[in-house]
Protein backbone atom coordinates (compact mmCIF):
# COMPACT_ATOMS: atom_id res chain seq x y z
CA UNK A 1 0.00 0.00 0.00
CA UNK A 2 1.32 3.45 -0.93
CA UNK A 3 2.16 6.09 1.70
CA UNK A 4 -0.85 8.31 0.88
CA UNK A 5 -3.21 5.31 0.87
CA UNK A 6 -1.97 4.26 4.32
CA UNK A 7 -2.56 7.74 5.72
CA UNK A 8 -6.00 7.98 4.10
CA UNK A 9 -6.92 4.58 5.59
CA UNK A 10 -5.87 5.66 9.07
CA UNK A 11 -7.79 8.91 8.77
CA UNK A 12 -10.88 7.04 7.57
CA UNK A 13 -10.66 4.63 10.53
CA UNK A 14 -11.37 7.52 12.87
CA UNK A 15 -14.94 7.63 11.56
CA UNK A 16 -15.68 3.97 12.23
CA UNK A 17 -15.96 4.04 16.01
CA UNK A 18 -17.28 6.67 18.36
CA UNK A 19 -15.25 8.54 20.92
CA UNK A 20 -11.77 9.92 21.30
CA UNK A 21 -10.17 6.49 21.79
CA UNK A 22 -10.61 5.67 18.11
CA UNK A 23 -9.02 8.98 17.14
CA UNK A 24 -6.21 8.34 19.60
CA UNK A 25 -5.58 4.95 17.96
CA UNK A 26 -5.67 6.53 14.52
CA UNK A 27 -3.14 9.20 15.46
CA UNK A 28 -0.96 6.53 17.08
CA UNK A 29 -1.06 4.48 13.89
CA UNK A 30 -0.23 7.53 11.82
CA UNK A 31 2.79 8.35 14.00
CA UNK A 32 4.05 4.76 13.82
CA UNK A 33 3.92 4.84 10.02
CA UNK A 34 5.78 8.14 9.93
CA UNK A 35 8.42 6.89 12.37
CA UNK A 36 8.99 3.71 10.38
CA UNK A 37 8.97 5.36 6.95
CA UNK A 38 11.38 8.12 7.91
CA UNK A 39 13.49 5.87 10.19
CA UNK A 40 13.40 7.89 13.41
CA UNK A 41 13.42 6.86 17.07
CA UNK A 42 10.55 9.13 18.10
CA UNK A 43 7.72 10.95 16.32
CA UNK A 44 5.26 13.09 18.26
CA UNK A 45 2.42 15.58 18.05
CA UNK A 46 2.91 18.48 20.41
CA UNK A 47 0.20 20.98 21.27
CA UNK A 48 1.04 24.63 21.96
CA UNK A 49 -0.85 25.71 25.08
CA UNK A 50 -0.26 28.82 27.19
CA UNK A 51 3.41 29.17 26.32
CA UNK A 52 4.20 25.47 26.55
CA UNK A 53 4.59 22.58 24.12
CA UNK A 54 2.78 19.56 25.53
CA UNK A 55 3.43 16.08 24.10
CA UNK A 56 -0.06 14.78 23.24
CA UNK A 57 0.80 11.74 21.09
CA UNK A 58 4.13 9.87 20.97
CA UNK A 59 5.36 6.92 18.92
CA UNK A 60 8.76 5.64 19.96
CA UNK A 61 10.94 2.80 18.72
CA UNK A 62 11.77 1.69 22.26
CA UNK A 63 9.64 1.41 25.37
CA UNK A 64 12.18 3.63 27.15
CA UNK A 65 11.21 6.73 25.19
CA UNK A 66 12.97 9.97 25.92
CA UNK A 67 9.61 11.74 26.01
CA UNK A 68 6.21 10.75 27.29
CA UNK A 69 2.65 11.91 26.70
CA UNK A 70 1.83 14.78 29.04
CA UNK A 71 5.37 16.09 29.45
CA UNK A 72 5.83 19.73 28.51
CA UNK A 73 8.46 22.39 27.98
CA UNK A 74 8.47 26.16 27.69
CA UNK A 75 7.69 26.78 24.05
CA UNK A 76 10.39 29.41 23.59
CA UNK A 77 13.04 26.81 24.44
CA UNK A 78 11.91 24.28 21.82
CA UNK A 79 13.07 23.46 18.33
CA UNK A 80 9.37 23.15 17.47
CA UNK A 81 8.65 26.83 18.07
CA UNK A 82 11.77 27.81 16.14
CA UNK A 83 10.58 25.74 13.16
CA UNK A 84 7.06 27.22 13.25
CA UNK A 85 8.32 30.81 13.37
CA UNK A 86 11.02 30.21 10.75
CA UNK A 87 14.12 30.51 12.96
CA UNK A 88 15.23 26.94 12.20
CA UNK A 89 14.87 24.72 9.13
CA UNK A 90 12.27 21.95 9.03
CA UNK A 91 14.97 19.32 8.46
CA UNK A 92 18.16 19.13 10.52
CA UNK A 93 20.70 16.34 9.93
CA UNK A 94 22.35 16.82 13.33
CA UNK A 95 20.89 18.99 16.08
CA UNK A 96 24.05 18.51 18.16
CA UNK A 97 26.03 19.94 15.26
CA UNK A 98 23.98 23.16 15.09
CA UNK A 99 22.96 23.51 18.74
CA UNK A 100 25.11 26.56 19.52
CA UNK A 101 24.36 28.19 16.15
CA UNK A 102 20.65 28.26 17.01
CA UNK A 103 21.04 29.05 20.72
CA UNK A 104 19.66 25.72 21.95
CA UNK A 105 20.29 24.52 25.48
CA UNK A 106 22.94 21.84 26.14
CA UNK A 107 20.11 19.32 26.62
CA UNK A 108 19.72 19.26 22.83
CA UNK A 109 23.29 18.00 22.46
CA UNK A 110 22.03 14.39 22.56
CA UNK A 111 19.88 14.78 19.45
CA UNK A 112 20.84 13.69 15.99
CA UNK A 113 18.41 14.35 13.16
CA UNK A 114 15.20 16.32 13.64
CA UNK A 115 12.30 17.01 11.29
CA UNK A 116 9.18 19.00 12.06
CA UNK A 117 6.17 20.78 10.58
CA UNK A 118 3.27 22.80 11.99
CA UNK A 119 -0.12 21.15 12.58
CA UNK A 120 -2.82 23.59 11.49
CA UNK A 121 -6.59 23.26 11.47
CA UNK A 122 -8.66 23.94 8.34
CA UNK A 123 -9.26 27.53 9.47
CA UNK A 124 -5.48 28.09 9.69
CA UNK A 125 -5.39 27.95 13.47
CA UNK A 126 -2.19 26.47 14.88
CA UNK A 127 -2.58 23.35 17.04
CA UNK A 128 1.13 22.70 17.43
CA UNK A 129 3.65 20.51 15.63
CA UNK A 130 4.39 17.09 14.23
CA UNK A 131 8.06 16.38 14.85
CA UNK A 132 10.41 13.45 14.84
CA UNK A 133 13.98 12.87 15.86
CA UNK A 134 16.77 10.35 16.07
CA UNK A 135 19.65 10.11 18.51
CA UNK A 136 22.13 9.84 15.68
CA UNK A 137 22.78 12.20 12.79
CA UNK A 138 20.98 11.24 9.59
CA UNK A 139 21.98 12.67 6.25
CA UNK A 140 19.23 10.88 4.33
CA UNK A 141 16.39 13.20 5.38
CA UNK A 142 15.20 15.39 2.54
CA UNK A 143 12.33 16.98 0.66
CA UNK A 144 10.44 13.70 0.27
CA UNK A 145 10.48 13.16 4.04
CA UNK A 146 9.35 16.74 4.61
CA UNK A 147 6.41 16.18 2.24
CA UNK A 148 5.52 13.00 4.15
CA UNK A 149 5.55 14.95 7.40
CA UNK A 150 3.33 17.67 5.90
CA UNK A 151 0.87 15.06 4.65
CA UNK A 152 0.84 13.37 8.05
CA UNK A 153 0.40 16.74 9.81
CA UNK A 154 -2.66 17.40 7.62
CA UNK A 155 -4.07 13.99 8.53
CA UNK A 156 -3.37 14.61 12.23
CA UNK A 157 -5.04 18.03 12.01
CA UNK A 158 -8.11 16.40 10.50
CA UNK A 159 -8.28 13.82 13.29
CA UNK A 160 -7.74 16.44 15.99
CA UNK A 161 -10.37 18.70 14.44
CA UNK A 162 -12.81 15.81 14.34
CA UNK A 163 -12.16 15.16 18.04
CA UNK A 164 -12.97 18.81 18.75
CA UNK A 165 -16.06 18.84 16.55
CA UNK A 166 -14.51 21.27 14.05
CA UNK A 167 -14.83 21.39 10.27
CA UNK A 168 -12.47 18.87 8.65
CA UNK A 169 -13.28 19.11 4.94
CA UNK A 170 -10.68 21.70 3.80
CA UNK A 171 -7.90 19.72 5.47
CA UNK A 172 -9.20 16.51 3.88
CA UNK A 173 -8.74 18.05 0.44
CA UNK A 174 -5.04 18.57 1.22
CA UNK A 175 -4.64 14.79 1.43
CA UNK A 176 -5.70 14.35 -2.21
Protein described:
The protein is α+β, with helices and mostly antiparallel strands and 176 residues long. It has a single domain (3-175), classed as GAF domain (Beta-Lactamase, 2-Layer Sandwich). It is 39% helix and 21% strand. The protein contains 6 helices and 6 strands. 38% of the residues are buried. Residues 3-20 and 170-176 have low confidence and may be disordered.
List the helices and strands and how they pair.
Layout: H1 3-13, H2 20-38, E1 42-49, E2 52-60, E3 72-74, H3 79-84, E4 91-92, H4 95-98, E5 114-120, E6 126-133, H5 143-164, H6 169-175
Antiparallel strand pairs: 1-2, 1-6, 2-3, 4-5, 5-6
Number of helices: 6
- The overall pLDDT average reads 84
CATH level-two architecture: 2-Layer Sandwich
- Compute the number of strand runs: 6
Q: Strand share of the residues?
A: 15-25%
Distance between the termini: 16 Å
Can you identify the CATH superfamily? GAF domain
Main beta sheet? 6 strands, antiparallel
User: How much helical structure, as a percent, in the residues?
Assistant: 25-40%
Number of domains: 1
Which strand order spans the largest sheet, edge to edge or round the barrel? 3-2-1-6-5-4
Gist of the model:
The protein is α+β, with helices and mostly antiparallel strands. Helix content is 39%, strand content 21%. The chain has a single domain, classed as GAF domain (Beta-Lactamase).
Core attributes:
176 residues; disordered C terminus; Beta-Lactamase; disordered N terminus; globular; 21% strand; alpha+beta; GAF
Amino acid sequence: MEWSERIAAITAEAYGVDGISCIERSIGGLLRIVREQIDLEVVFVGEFVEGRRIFRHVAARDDDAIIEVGQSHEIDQTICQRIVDGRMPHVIDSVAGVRTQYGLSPAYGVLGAHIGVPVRFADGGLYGVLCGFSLEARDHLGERDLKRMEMAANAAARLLAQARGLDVEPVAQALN
